[in-house]
Amino acid sequence: MKKMTRQEKYRYIEQALPGELELLEEKVSKSLWRQSYHIQPPTGLLNDPNGFSYYNGAYHLFYQWFPFGAEHGMKYWFHTTSKDLANWEEVGIGIKPGDVYDSHGAYSGSAVVKDHRLHLMYTGNARDASWVRHTSQCMAVMDEKGSIVKIDKPVIPEIPPGYTDHFRDPKIWEVNGEYFCVIGAQRNNKTGCTVLYQSKDLIDWEFKGEVVTDLDEFGYMWECPDYFEMDGKGILLFSPQGLEPEKERYQNIYQSGYLLGKPLDMETLSFKHQPFQELDKGFDFYAQQTTETPDGRRILVGWMGLPDLEYPTDKEGWAHCLTLPRQISIKDEKVIQRPVPELALLRKEEKNVNIKIDNETKQLEELHGKAYELFCEIKDLKAERVGIEFRANNSEKTVLSYDSVNNEIILDRSLSGQPLEKKNGCIRRCSFKAEELKIHMFVDVSSVEIFINDGEEVFTSRIFPSEDSEAIRFFSQNGSATFRALKWYY
Ligand code: FRU
Q1: Do 319 and 368 fall into the same domain?
Q2: In a mutational test of the pocket of ligand 1, which residue from 76, 163, 224, 253 has the highest number of ligand atoms less than 8 Å from its CB?
Q3: How many distinct structural domains can be found in the chain?
């Protein structure tokens, strides 16, 4: 596919050629892979979730948006809202780049409510005539009518000594009227880390220093950090770049995960933590962000995609979507992620099936479909391998299986449909041991999110099957198992 030139990529929406966006919209509307219940861009490319918050009676979720095609270029914040975390409405552009400090993009950031206004803190990306990057942290304020106005100067104009211009993605939170933010950074020695700032008013920010972890050399950049506390523990989420694959771990080209530890010591910035763990075992998950609901639940949304990979919809003028919102909890020193219960609002017709599968593969006509929620319990497990083939036809299928000999869960998208980039691989596995399995899947036109045993493991992936790949099959190999499935059409 022909790549855009730098001039084409770094244009503002007002600089669209006559009819350009209309043509793109038409092209996008013909795509067979448009999602039915996920947040996706109207045209162009979506990446990180931004400014996820609850304000003025609604959830607000923005995303990084490049309007002109499936490439990374001039980034806007696109605004969506929801009353219930299940049904989302497009509002339109939230933050426009174009001032001196964000002339080349309004990059990722977060939101906090202060004085009845939603404060959006983001990274201003600017380039000079020699294409040298200038990074600052900026603020925009949204009022109750939804109008968003930028504060005219960056609130953190400089990068502190010791760090390169890869310094971005402020995540703000409030404790007793004081504000804190973590920022993703790269040290001058080209290793990644996160730094902390503090403010009383969201305008004057004091650099507190680097969050002290055990990970001195852990990739070359940490993007999109997020910090919160839960059950007396501290959790630092981030997306490190530059980790080498290690057995079943770090298989994606970039990672996303967390450090779980004692609450961050705000004086010494020491963070005592367990080893880094990946949040998602699927192929397409990155740059997650959390917020807290009015009833105190911690909810996470991620970008269902990765940078630097091509996807089949690129040639159709659009790319990527966000994940469904997930509710976070901690169990046995591990972060558990469950789909938010509000998603039940999307359920329409319900079907159920109870069946014993004995060394065979059975197609279940009553369960077929393209956009649905499936909850399947697998019990009386006496087989060496059990699983589900879905979005299947005669030649295509995506396969989730449990291997009870080697104790692992495997997601195989090698026959899912349109091939994806080889460098990201076709199979993901993760060690898992269980007597019974609960598989909770959310299938949309071109994606799947799979929650195993109440959110102990999650696999998130794009898939690009043919339109007629609607079959579901349950299977067992070398033994039997019972499958009890409930399915809701969306
Ligand atoms: C992560 C990221 C962020 C940056 C944004 C730009 O995907 O690279 O670090 O702010 O995307 O779109």
Answers
A1: no
A2: 224
A3: 2
Residue that terminates a domain, selected from 342, 372, 387 = 342
In SS3 terms, 89-116 reads as EEEEEEECCCCHHHCCCEEEEEEEEECC
Per residue of the chain (490 residues), what is the pLDDT tens digit? 789 999 999 999 999 999 999 999 999 999 999 999 999 999 999 999 999 999 999 999 999 999 999 999 999 999 999 999 999 999 999 999 999 999 999 999 999 999 999 999 999 999 999 999 999 999 999 999 999 999 999 999 999 999 999 999 999 999 999 999 999 999 999 999 999 999 999 999 999 999 999 999 999 999 999 999 999 999 999 999 999 999 889 999 999 999 999 999 999 999 999 999 999 999 999 999 999 999 999 999 999 999 999 999 999 999 999 999 999 999 999 999 999 999 999 999 999 999 999 999 999 999 999 999 999 999 999 999 999 999 999 999 999 999 999 999 999 999 999 999 888 889 999 999 999 999 999 999 999 999 999 999 999 999 999 999 999 999 999 999 999 999 999 9
Domain boundaries, position 390 = 347-489
CATH code for the domain of 316: 2.115.10.20
Residue 444 annotated among the catalytic residues of the structure: no
DSSP 283: S
The residue whose CA is least distant from atom 12 of ligand 1 is 107
| CA distances (Å), origin 469, targets 58, 391, 414, 445, 483 | 37, 5, 14, 10, 22
Distance (Å) from CA 107 to ligand 1 centroid: 6
Query: Do 335 and 308 sit in the same domain of this protein?
Result: yes
1, part of any domain: no
Q: From 235, 457, 320, 298, select the one nearest 46 (Cα to Cα).
A: 320
